[in-house]
Write a structure and sequence with these properties.
This protein has helices spanning about 60-75, 80-85, 105-115, 150-160, 180-190, and strands spanning about 15-20, 25-35, 40, 45-50, 125-130, 130-140, 145-150, 170-175, 215, 235. It has about 240 residues and is α+β, with helices and mostly antiparallel strands. The chain has a domain at about 120-160. The protein has a three-stranded antiparallel sheet with strand order 2-1-8, covered by helices on one side. It has a three-stranded antiparallel sheet with strand order 5-6-7. The protein has a two-stranded antiparallel ribbon with strand order 3-4. It is globular, with a radius of gyration of 23 Å.
């Protein structure tokens, strides 16, 4: 859609984050995308900004295209499951939630929790026994804090359902933000005169964990089979 000249006429770069759980650990798979407000034109020489600050692409058309692509993919990969889906599903109005996110920093910080953490943190668990587990959650409808108690087996079933299968990634990069699109990303950085940080490393790993006075400096990499020596190089 972004390639259509009447809409944008450019290649997008975006990051997708898979989120599979709801607030009570129920199975609720969906994907969040962070999309810069513009794209790189097809000769790679110009940055094409969104025509409006709070609008990139028409949401209704996005939903219709997503529905059609989803049906085509399901029919091709799992025709038996596709046959079991009511025909009205492919005629109903689907939803793609799309809204401006300002500079994007808040959105990145919000989605980072899904990448660095699992479906539930220890802080939310109120009690856990061999028979049941009770944990806190926030009701999305009312915003109130509530508790949910599940049988231990049900808690484990819900929890393990959100463990990624081998080969599945929670984060994917597309377009000129893809790791293999280095030249296109550098072109965007040049046009915008601003570096694009795909993943900023935390600062804590640069300091000595004991005194926090020295900066750790990488001096090299050991072969995978070798054992690490009982020392590390530091410099003031």
């Amino acid at each position: 859609m972004a390639a259509e000249r009447r809409l944008l006429g450019a290649e997008l770069g975006f990051v997708g984050v898979l989120h599979t759980w709801g607030r009570r650990l129920q199975h609720h798979p969906h994907v969040h995308y962070i999309v810069p407000g513009g794209g790189l034109n097809f000769d790679g020489k110009k940055w094409v900004p969104a025509r409006q600050r709070d609008w990139l692409l028409p949401v209704a058309k996005l939903a219709a295209v997503f529905r059609a692509r989803m049906e085509t993919a399901l029919e091709g990969e799992a025709p038996g499951e596709h046959a079991g889906v009511p025909a009205a599903t492919w005629r109903a109005r689907w939803v793609v939630h799309c809204q401006p996110a300002g500079s994007g920093e808040t959105a990145v910080r919000y989605l980072a929790r899904y990448v660095a953490r699992t479906a539930i943190s220890d802080e939310r668990v109120v009690s856990a026994t061999d028979e049941a587990v009770t944990f806190r959650y926030t009701d999305s409808a009312t915003g109130q804090r509530k508790t949910c108690t599940l049988a231990a087996a049900e808690f484990l079933r819900r929890y393990l359902r959100h463990v990624p299968v081998p080969g599945q990634h929670r984060v994917r990069h597309f377009g000129w933000l893809h790791p293999s699109a280095t030249q296109r990303r550098m072109r965007v950085e040049t046009l915008l005169q601003k570096p694009i940080i795909v993943a900023a490393p935390p600062r804590w790993h640069l300091q000595c964990p004991h005194c926090a006075r020295f900066t750790l400096v990488r001096v090299g990499a050991l072969p995978r089979q070798a054992r690490a020596p009982p020392w590390c190089a530091v410099s003031a």
